[in-house]
Specification:
CATH topology: Rossmann fold
Helix content: 25-40%
Strand content: 15-25%
Number of helices: 11
Number of strands: 8
Strand order of the largest sheet: 1-2-4-3-5-6-7-8
Length: 323
C-alpha cells in the first residue's frame, strides 16, 4: 500500500521532486560526488545535538588502514553500556560529521557511550570493505575505551544502510562465542538487497528515496558492472541480504522502526516477522506519513524524531531491567 505523506513534508518533497525531475530531464546521471553532496545538503535540517561531557576523535588501526571513530560519553563518572553507531547513506554516503547530532542524541537516549564509525564507502571500497571495518569495531571497540568506565553490555544501532550493517553483523556473529550483542536498534533498515518487497515499487517514487537510486546504490556497493553475469550478481546480493540469512534465537533483542512512505518499509516488517518466528524478542513501530531518512529531517518533523528517541530510550531501559 502506497504511503500517505505527512503535511509537514509536503513542501520539502515538492522541492526535492522538482530537483529530481530536472536532473532526469537534463540527463544528469548519478555519481558518487552528487549523491554525497545531496545527503550532506540535509545537514541544516538535522539540527544540533546536545552537549556531551566527552566527545573524542580516535581510530582503530588495522594492518592496511586506520578506521576513524568518534566517541561520545554523556556521563564519564558512571559505568555505562556501549552503543556502536553505524550511519546510513546507501553504503556510499554519510559520515561521522553528518551524523554527529544523531550520535549525540543516541548517547543521551541510551545513556550509553556511543562510538560512531567512518567505515569505508563504495564505490572506492566495495562490499565487504565497509562491513569488514564494522566487524573490526565490533571485535575491538573496548580498546578505544581504555580511559573510560564502561560495562560489558553492548548495543548496536543503525539507520538505512547502517541497519544493513547491524543486521549483517548479527547474522555473521550469531554463532561467534567471542561476540555478545545485547540489543540492536534498526531505523528504517535496509535488509534485502534483492529489492523484492512490494513497497519498493509502491513507495519508490516521490518520497525522497527512489527505486532507481536504490538500485544504483547497490550496483556501486557490489560492483555489479557489465562484466558480472546476472546469475552471479543475483547470488552475490542474495547471500549478502540479512533478510535471506539464518534466523535463530541467538539474535539479540531488537527494536525495528519503519516509515510508512519508505520504499524499504516492507522489508523491515518482514525482518520483524522472521525474528518473531525465531522466538527473538522484537518490537516494531511504524511512523505513518514519514519518508525514508526522516531522522535527517529533524527540523521539519521534530515531534516524530523526539518520539523515535523516546522509543529507543524506553526500549533500552525496559530490556536492561529485564536482563
Amino acid at each position: 500500500m502506497r504511503g500517505i505523506i505527512s503535511p509537514k513534508l509536503v513542501s520539502f518533497l515538492e522541492q526535492a521532486n522538482s530537483a529530481i525531475a530536472l536532473a532526469k530531464a537534463t540527463g544528469q546521471g548519478f555519481s558518487a560526488e552528487l549523491v554525497r553532496q545531496g545527503l550532506d545538503n540535509l545537514a541544516p535540517l538535522i539540527g544540533s545535538g546536545p552537549n556531551m561531557a566527552i566527545v573524542k576523535n580516535s581510530y582503530l588501526a588495522t594492518p592496511s588502514h586506520n578506521i576513524p571513530v568518534r566517541i561520545y560519553n554523556p556521563a564519564p563518572n558512571d559505568v555505562l553500556p556501549v552503543l556502536l553507531h553505524f550511519h546510513g547513506g546507501g553504503h556510499m554516503c554519510g559520515s561521522i560529521e553528518l551524523y554527529d547530532a544523531i550520535s549525540r542524541k543516541l548517547a543521551l537516549a541510551a545513556q550509553a557511550i556511543v562510538i560512531c564509525i567512518d567505515y569505508r564507502l563504495a564505490p572506492e571500497h566495495s562490499y565487504p570493505a565497509g562491513l569488514d571495518d564494522c566487524q573490526q569495531l565490533l571485535l575491538d571497540y573496548k580498546s578505544l575505551l581504555f580511559d573510560m568506565k564502561h560495562s560489558d553490555e553492548l548495543f548496536i544501532a543503525g539507520d538505512s544502510a547502517g541497519g544493513a550493517l547491524c543486521t549483517s553483523l548479527v547474522m555473521n556473529n550469531q554463532h561467534n562465542h567471542s561476540v555478545k550483542i545485547d540489543k540492536q536498534i534498526l531505523i528504517y533498515p535496509s535488509v534485502d538487497y534483492t529489492m523484492s518487497s512490494a513497497s519498493i515499487e509502491e513507495n519508490g517514487q516521490g518520497f525522497l528515496l527512489e527505486t532507481d537510486k536504490i538500485y544504483w546504490y547497490f550496483e556501486q556497493y557490489f560492483q555489479l558492472g557489465d562484466s558480472v553475469d546476472a546469475e552471479t550478481a543475483k547470488a552475490k546480493i542474495a547471500s549478502a541480504s540479512p533478510l535471506l540469512g539464518e534466523f535463530t534465537n541467538k539474535i539479540p533483542t531488537t527494536l525495528v522502526i519503519t516509515a510508512g512512505c519508505d520504499p524499504l518499509r516492507d522489508e523491515g516488517i518482514a525482518y520483524t516477522k522472521l525474528l518473531t518466528d525465531a522466538d527473538v524478542d522484537v518490537e516494531h513501530h511504524v511512523f505513518d506519513g514519514m519518508t525514508h531518512a526522516y531522522m535527517l529531517l529533524d527540523e521539519l518533523v521534530r515531534d516524530e524524531c523526539v518520539a523515535t528517541y523516546k522509543l529507543i530510550s524506553d526500549f533500552i531501559k525496559k530490556n536492561t531491567a529485564n536482563s
